[in-house]
Amino acid sequence: MSIKTHKDELEEIIDAVIKLTWNYKIFRVLFEKGEVDFETRQAHPEIFLTLHDSLFCSFCVAADLLFEEKPSATSLWSLVRKSQPILATKLNEKIRGNKSLLEKIGAIRNQVCAHRWQKKSPQEVFAEVKLRVSMMAEIVDLARSVILDLAEEIDAGRKTELEKQQLSELTLRCVADDAAKILQAFRNC
Q1: What are the sequence ranges of the domains in the chain?
Q2: Which end of the chain has fewer CB atoms surrounding its CB within 10 Å, N or C?
Q3: What is the full DSSP assignment across 48-96?
Q4: Which pLDDT tens digit goes with each residue over 171-183?
Q5: pTM for this one?
Q6: Where are the alpha helices (DSSP H) in the chain?
């Protein structure tokens, strides 16, 4: 059994942040408010309910794992702990400033998506958490910002590569366009 190197952990977390970002982008396109899209979703409820729940729970699980604080976890926190003191302090403050938001996503992950605690129904959890789509955007922005800073610390070229490829606005537009094509295909049914 080999031990992950710091660079291996970075690449694993970069991959998770990319997928979280793409997941969010697809979710937003498929479930934005709009009369035509609402009618399309209403015409195919089984598909869109399944897509909604799958994308949403996947987002909550990924976000919760990315911000896992356990020392043994491969997470953004584990990378922050290994970074240089000045950067670690900056990122620590940035993440801690979003603690309440991260706890809300963790509650949904644990009580709705993963464990389904018997004490509360999913509706009760959502009522307590008061999740808004804008909170998902905040988490994506936080994860992207942290991982880009961490990538730059290890390899400035890697940060530039991410900004030009997987996390670029062009790539995100392509992901959004592809999701829009799914809606369009269902409109044409």
Answers
A1: 6-184
A2: N
A3: HHHHHHHHHHHHHHHHHHHT---TTS-SHHHHHHHS-HHHHHHHHHHHH
A4: 999 999 999 999 9
A5: 0.91
A6: 6-31, 35-43, 45-66, 76-82, 85-96, 99-108, 122-129, 133-154, 156-164, 169-187
